[in-house]
Amino acid sequence: MVRGSKQMTEYELVWVDENAKYYDLEGALLNYGPRSEKKFGFGVKDAFTFGKGTHVELYVAKKELKRVGAEGRAFFMNPANLKRVLDICKTARDEITAQAKIAAKTDLSQLSSDEFRKESDFYGSKIGTIFTCYAATIPYAVAEIERELTTFLLSKKVDAAHALSVLTTPETRFVFSEENPLFKPFNQTIEKEDGTIDRSAVENPAFREEKADETERNRLIAELKPPEDILHAAEVLRTLAEERMKMRFAWLLGLYVNELFLAELKRRFGISKTDLRKYVGAELDALMLSGQKLDAKRLQEREKGLAKILVGSEIDSIEGSKAQEFLDETIKPASQVRELVGVVASRGRAVGKVILLSYTNPGEHGAKISKMEHGQILVTQMTHPDIVIACKKAGAIVTDEGGMLSHAAIVSRELGIPCVVGTKAATAVLKDGDVVEVNAFDGTVKKLR
Question: Which of 16, 59, 142, 334 might form a disulfide with 381, Cβ 3.0–4.6 angstroms?
């Protein structure tokens, strides 16, 4: 992408996340781009992040999604590469979990300036490593594999959506421990100025694992007699789905405990956590090394937004009102349609009123979930652990993002409720109170009124 070019590149929203810190914007691009390419051999070269308030958005050029999908297929269809990725991901999980436990037990106020800076950098590197693993296993990297598996199933004249769901369901069932602090919205706890972490999060696992019943999967494999490459394709999707769920919780734990470092920076330099979230990485380094602070005017301008743009391996920045203008010029509003189409993650059909839980306004989640009625249709960009309670109340789940590897796909199958993922525009088209029909047999979501 070249700014100012008459031929604008088309971008697709890949995810929206909460608990935004501006110093994460560049790191996210590095993880999806150069770091992923260095570690695994493929990564995006044209993307941007946009942060404002308490959320961040990642957009990737559509041509890049296609290219990385092809490279991801070539990579993951090699069994040795799949094993290598799973080993690297497990190591990253173990390391950030161990480091989170150490940090939670460390009195950061007793560290010297140099010790604190080194500890902060080391901890940040562990978060970066697991984020790179998570980025390399994102659904678009295996989209071609998912399509090939679907094409095979369609040729067998079976219910392709159901068969795809069965074949790609992880061998592990996740039983969540909802009393764990990770299931609470970040904005209600640690994002508050006086908010602090509940250190029990590092001692009490967020979930336990149980062996899934694979009777139906084994029966289907015996019936379909898939060739080795198709069987491996299913294995790629199911093992990465399981690993991504585990990484998600390890990563969340890492981010949760990372608030201790932000609180310590606040104590040492007298800067609010709200303002510290507006610093980028180099500015935090300068703060820790020499006490250099951003002035009030710069911070005020940052409230209007910040964009980080990746072209090749170089990253550019736009901030303030110009960042919002860049986003508005680059991303066009979704067309208002009455029917959305996505991927069936869990079969079924449901009709109900929409409850919209958007990560552009995560501060609304707690109040909305407490008032949510059973059977409402949960519409969101992607499901996170902090809205699992909403998932349990929902009559169906509809997401903008994701595929068979997504959190929503796994959770909906375990709850036995209909789910359509990857609609791309559900949160833009639907609003609270809309009555919709979710047909999780053909992957459609129809607005009735």
Answer: 16
Q: What is the pLDDT of residues 237-252, one digit of tens each?
A: 999 999 999 999 999 9
Considering its fold, how many domains does the chain have in total?
2
Determine the Cα–Cα distance for residues 88 and 93; give it in Å rounded to an integer: 9
Q: Do 354 and 291 fall into the same domain?
A: no
Q: Is residue 2 part of a domain?
A: no
**Contact criterion met (CB below 8 Å) for 412 and 345:** yes
Strand bridging mode 306-311 / 46-52 = antiparallel
- Give the span between the Cα atoms of 234 and 245, in whole angstroms: 17
H or E segment and range at residue 307: strand 306-311
CB 419 within 8 A of CB 409: yes
Residues 213 and 252 in one domain: yes
Q: Compute CA distances 393 → 341, 398, 421, 445, whole Å.
A: 23, 14, 18, 19
Range of the domain at 436: 339-447
Coil vs helix vs strand at 137? coil
Rg over CA atoms, the chain:
22
Question: For residue range 28-51, what is the model confidence (pLDDT) as tens digits?
Answer: 999 999 999 999 999 999 999 999
Rounded to whole angstroms, what are the CA distances from 12 to 33, 360, 382, 436, 448? Answer: 16, 16, 15, 25, 27
